[in-house]
Specification:
Layout lengths: L8 H4 L11 H16 L6 E4 L3 H13 L4 E4 L8 H11 L6 E4 L4 H10 L11 E5 L8 E6 L5 H4 L1
Parallel strand pairs: 1-2, 1-3
Antiparallel strand pairs: 4-5
Helix pairs in contact: 2-3
Length: about 160
């Protein structure tokens, strides 16, 4: 899952990219997306996010809905390599655990492409790619590629 819409550093009055918070729209998007996941009967055992504020906040919103999920952060989700992310996912998913990763574009889209054997995905804010792992060596299968609906004021 990509974090929800975030304020720019200037809008938020912060000095660096890692400090950028979710916007009010991002808070709403994140909650709607997590509710969508819950309604589709996806319940993660582990939620791992980038330590950047906007991704951490998105993961905290998810953890408030998925109260039984273990919560972690990983620097690999804020700029790690695909190899680091693959290792993170494999270690978190041991024992058939379901994992929700919360991070940033283009890394989230790239790892989803890698795991499905497809091209990289262009994931919108608060969007996600749900993947079913392969039962044997090889790529997993795409279950859902979700983009949140536009805000109400943009639909008019």
């Amino acid at each position: 899952m990509r974090h929800g819409h975030a304020l720019s550093a200037r809008e938020a009055g912060v000095a660096s990219d890692p400090e950028r918070p979710l916007s009010p729209l991002g808070e709403k998007e994140a909650l709607e997306t997590v509710r969508h996941l819950s309604a589709s009967e996806f319940v993660p055992d582990v939620i791992i996010s980038s330590p950047f504020q906007r991704a951490d906040r998105t993961a905290r919103i998810a953890a408030a809905v998925f109260t039984g999920a273990e919560r972690r952060t990983s620097d690999a989700l804020s700029g790690g390599s695909l190899q680091e992310l693959q290792e993170l996912i494999l270690s978190a998913a041991s024992g058939n655990s379901r994992v929700l990763l919360v991070g940033h574009q283009p890394l989230i889209g790239a790892i989803a492409g890698f795991l499905t054997g497809a091209d990289s995905f262009d994931v919108s804010p608060a969007g996600f790619i749900r993947i079913r792992p392969a039962q044997k060596p090889g790529p997993g299968s795409l279950v859902e590629f979700y983009t949140p609906p536009p805000p109400e004021e943009k639909r008019r």
